């Protein structure tokens, strides 16, 4: 008997016209088909993830370099309109860079140009400033959004920021040093615990009406009150003597999801005026590593 005939027929051969497919072969074909579909779907998912993480990072890095170069060029222009070296942020169009942000504990190469606005197109370039929030150094809340995965991922690791870590913001004429506020578990022991660290000078749990503002929190995307002048207190206002100069960073949480938002709040502790005669002079906070 030929190996292609009868019960000994090879599983690798074709079935002739009009022949019935035995049940085991039919099941094997179904399983094989499902397996091939799953493999194809897995490859597509891996390609998409690779694109989102690596390709968009490369594209955003190029856009960020262009934005930084444009900002540097504007800063080098003659101060014809600003002989008194006054910061001007009015009239910034969407996507225009106006400041730079450094987080020293993330390394000397961590630097991003902050842009005006938070549209998808803007956030593909770098961190974006929420409209109608304060600007660097101004009383109120300087609020900035950034991606956590892909598209440059400027805020990928902000969950690792600890209380008193510095966030340094550079504008055309000034340096502003913000430090992360105490986290929820540190508030009660701050005076005798973390607060004794010399780097924490100027950082303390905030009193009313800012007593709901802590260094890090996770909220719903609908909780926009975290970027208010008095975060988490809709309608609350601080008197002139009570006003605090804050900076708030927002990003998606957890990674690869937009189900929640990770929030970091920091308070301004120092301002350094740039020295026109010595442009290479930098704030000492930029050298902090941990």
The biggest sheet, with number of strands, parallel, antiparallel or mixed sense and barrel status, is: 8 strands, mixed, barrel
Strand order within the widest sheet? Answer: 1-2-3-4-8-9-6-5
Helix percent band? 10-25%
Distance from first to last alpha carbon: 80 Å
**What share of residues are in beta strands?**
15-25%
Number of helices: 2
| CATH architecture descriptor text | Beta Barrel
- Fourth-tier CATH superfamily name: Sortase
Round the Cα radius of gyration to an integer and report it: 28 Å
Structure description:
This protein is α+β, with helices and mostly antiparallel strands and 290 residues long. It has a single domain (51-77, 90-287), classed as Sortase, Chain: A, CATH 2.40.260. The protein has two helices and nine strands. The protein has helices spanning 23-76, 120-123; strands at residues 97-102, 111-116, 128-129, 140-145, 166-170, 174-180, 216-219, 245-253, 260-273. It has an eight-stranded mixed β-barrel. The longest helix is centred in the N-terminal third of the chain and has 54 residues, at 23-76. It is globular and about 90 Å long. It starts with 22 loop residues before the first helix and ends in a 17-residue tail after the last strand.
Topology:
Elements: H1 23-76, E1 97-102, E2 111-116, H2 120-123, E3 128-129, E4 140-145, E5 166-170, E6 174-180, E7 216-219, E8 245-253, E9 260-273
Parallel strand pairs: 2-3, 4-8
Antiparallel strand pairs: 1-2, 1-5, 3-4, 5-6, 6-9, 7-9, 8-9
Keywords:
20% helix, Sortase, Chain: A, 290 residues, alpha+beta, 2 helices
